[in-house]
TrEMBL record:
Any GO molecular function: monooxygenase activity
PANTHER family in the record: FLAVIN-BINDING MONOOXYGENASE-LIKE PROTEIN (AFU_ORTHOLOGUE AFUA_4G09220), FLAVIN-CONTAINING MONOOXYGENASE
Record bears the keyword RNA-binding: no
Highest classification ranks of the organism: Bacteria, Pseudomonadati, Pseudomonadota, Alphaproteobacteria, Hyphomicrobiales
Pfam families assigned: Pyr_redox_3 (PF13738)
Protein name in the entry: Putative flavoprotein involved in K+ transport
Domain of life: Bacteria
Keywords: Oxidoreductase
Length: 408
């Protein structure tokens, strides 16, 4: 795989030891736990807040940052035991697809050289540091079971705990349940199958050839890693396109990345522009363009691009062109299926996402979404887009809170 400069390691393994704006993170007091933004409650009574944020990833923490700046009481709930664990569970060699310049959050830049591609663990540690830096009230190890609405307020149930609020922000994105075709069950039991959400390293696979199903950024990164290690790799799926320059090259780092990632992805390809509205359905269907890995990189490593995998024949993967591949491993880089069945509120959905306008659900006043793919722009599912989408949602919440106070 192409190597990139590594982020500076945390001192003594402590993620709070990064430097930000000249201040040592390990001098910051206060762990990012407990519902500090919530009102006191009696034993077994629901916890009352103005806003419940579900999910403590980059978008959920960004929402929390802006809520705190406005003085709106809130709590952030996350199923993980530690902030950033969703990133830590990604494959071992993963680096973000964009440089550190674009991976900071509102109020805090990413603590590394702006041209470095951060590792997934560095990103996880950064989120943990961010929550501590701004003393955000995050409750970890609290998986949400259901959201319902009663008497004009939302009830959020998490095991034996209950939270009530007039506003709920779902910050879990669309990456919730691995999407694997039903015919995968018909593959020969001797074939090792993994979804990209479970893939960590080549050591998980058996000996022999590999079929990567899915030709997006994740599929391309995994294909490159496996091929660079000497595997014969086929990659199946629709062409998603690619940005026409080397993002890690000199010209790319200093000029082109600003034009494409900073301008095109963030400002041009939005739901407010005709071209953005035209591109959005394709992005939702097949994913965004390849950013770091190029088709010619894969070809140089011997990765063979093949048509879509459409079924199984004699226990082996069957391709759209009629070929049958004799492989020992299949890695499903086919994305994730959104699961909003736990939201017991009548909202329209197209099967991919709830009906919304920039994350605001008209059918359910007070219910909001952030982190959805192309929620407002192509950058919405990237770290870069988290702050803008969060600011917009918090502005709407503040308007609603003010309106409620005026009418009380």
């Amino acid at each position: 795989m192409t190597s990139h400069p590594s982020p500076s390691p945390a001192r003594n393994g402590n993620p709070l030891a990064y430097l930000e704006e000249g201040a040592a993170f390990d001098d910051i007091a206060g762990p990012a736990v407990s519902g500090g933004g919530a009102r006191p409650r009696t034993r077994n009574a629901p916890q009352q807040v103005d806003v419940v944020v579900i999910g403590a990833g980059q978008t959920g923490l960004s929402v929390g940052y802006h809520l705190k700046r406005r003085g709106i009481p809130f709590v952030i709930l996350d199923a993980n035991e530690r902030i950033g664990d969703t990133w830590r569970r990604r494959w071992d060699s993963l680096r973000l697809f964009t440089p550190a310049r674009y991976n900071g959050l509102d109020g805090m830049r990413f603590p590394d050289n702006v041209h470095v591609f951060p590792t997934k663990d560095a990103m996880a540690d950064f989120l943990e540091v961010y929550a501590a830096r701004f003393d955000l009230p995050v409750l970890t190890g609290v998986p949400v079971d259901r959201v319902s609405r009663q008497n004009g307020r939302y009830v959020v149930r998490a095991g034996a705990r209950r939270f009530e609020a007039p506003n709920v922000v779902v910050a879990m994105g669309t990456f919730q349940r691995p999407k694997v075709p039903a015919f995968s069950r018909d593959l020969d039991p001797s074939i090792v199958q993994l979804h990209s959400g479970d893939y960590r390293s080549p050591a998980q696979l058996g000996d022999g050839d590999v079929l990567i199903v899915g030709a997006g950024n994740s599929g391309s990164e995994v294909a490159r890693e496996l091929a660079a290690g000497g595997r014969k790799v086929w990659m199946s799926g629709r062409d998603t396109g690619h940005i026409p320059f080397r993002i890690e090259g000199l010209l790319g780092r200093h000029l082109m990345v600003r034009l494409v990632v900073g301008f095109l992805f963030y400002r041009v390809l939005t739901t407010s522009t005709p071209v953005g509205r035209k591109v959005r359905p394709k992005v939702l269907a097949v994913g965004g363009p390849l950013i770091r890995v190029k088709p010619k990189d894969l070809a140089a490593l011997g990765v063979e691009r093949v048509p879509r995998t459409t079924g199984v024949e004699d226990g082996k993967p069957h391709l759209e062109d009629g070929r049958v591949l004799d492989v020992k491993n299949v890695v499903w880089c086919t994305g994730f299926t959104p699961d909003f069945s736990w939201i017991d509120v009548p909202i329209a959905t197209d099967g991919h996402e709830p009906a919304h306008r920039r994350g605001v659900v008209a059918d359910a006043p007070g219910l909001y979404f952030v982190g959805l793919e192309f929620l407002y722009s192509l950058a919405s599912a990237m770290v870069q887009g988290a702050g803008r989408d969060a600011r917009y949602i918090v502005d709407r919440i503040a308007e609603r809170v003010a309106s409620t106070a005026t009418n009380a």
